[in-house]
UniProtKB/TrEMBL annotation:
It comes from Sphingobacterium paramultivorum. It comes from the Bacteria. One of its GO terms (biological process) is DNA damage response. This is SIMPL domain-containing protein. PANTHER family: SLR1258 PROTEIN.
Length: 240
């Protein structure tokens, strides 16, 4: 590479270098290289969250609320055998409203509806089929969602950050070597913040409606997919 006199080195690549133009370079961007890196970790889930719905419609609101609360109490007593109430069982407040059905081209009042939701985290996936079977014996109105996740998601994401940084550093060194320059100290470091627990969860997309009837029998079986935890790191290095 030809020796430069008073001008400074500047590398601009359209794909992974986060600088939009090489035409006019500000002094802040001189002698710098910006690269991004990606870190991925694939792992099987070790817990599942079930959203359990309980809804009843009765001619009198007090009866709808009473039936809903009685069913919720039964479900909580069952869930306590599979987890800890404070950490694993979360219940919403009871909501009650008028209920209508579309009959004969018009909305007809059919009674008062009370509903309540329970979120439960099961940490032993081997008990999943057994638990769902027990839930089907109660008068729940349905299981709204089933979400698999990992109990150490935050730690896994931090590890993915390190892998992403190593990837960015490796890219920076390769680019600098190709340009016959050397990278210096790290000037900027940030992750994109996009990888949250919500984005790594596997949701079945299945909503089971039981219409307040206890079915009993064997619970359902679901094979969870491998979870992928992903981070993107943005770096900026000095060019010597």
């Amino acid at each position: 590479m030809k020796k430069q006199s008073t001008s400074m080195f500047f590398i601009c690549l359209s794909s992974i270098i986060l600088i939009s133009s090489c035409g006019s370079v500000s002094k802040e961007s001189e002698n710098r290289i910006r690269v991004s890196g990606e870190g991925k970790i694939r792992i099987m889930p070790d817990q599942v969250t079930l959203t359990i719905n309980t809804t009843f419609t009765k001619p009198r609101m007090v009866d709808a609320v009473r039936e809903t609360q009685a069913t919720v109490d039964t479900v909580i007593a069952l869930l306590q055998k599979y987890g800890h109430q404070k950490e694993d069982i979360k219940t919403s407040s009871v909501s009650a409203n008028k209920d209508y059905q579309y009959i004969g081209n018009t909305n007809k009042f059919i009674g008062y509806q009370a509903q309540q939701t329970i979120d439960f985290v099961l940490h032993d996936l081997s008990k999943f089929t057994e638990l769902t079977g027990k839930l089907l014996e109660t008068k729940i109105s349905g299981i709204g969602s089933i979400s698999f996740d990992h109990s150490k998601a935050d730690s896994i994401l931090r590890e993915a950050d390190l892998i992403a940084y190593d990837d960015a550093l490796k890219s920076a060194k390769k680019l600098a070597s190709r340009a016959d320059v050397k990278i210096g100290k790290l000037l900027f470091l940030s992750n994109d913040g996009s990888a949250s627990n919500e984005s790594t969860q596997y949701r079945t997309g299945m909503a089971l409606e039981t219409f307040n009837k206890g079915y009993g029998g064997e619970g359902f079986k679901i094979a969870p997919e491998v979870l992928e935890f992903k981070r993107t790191i943005f770096t900026e290095f000095e060019i010597k």
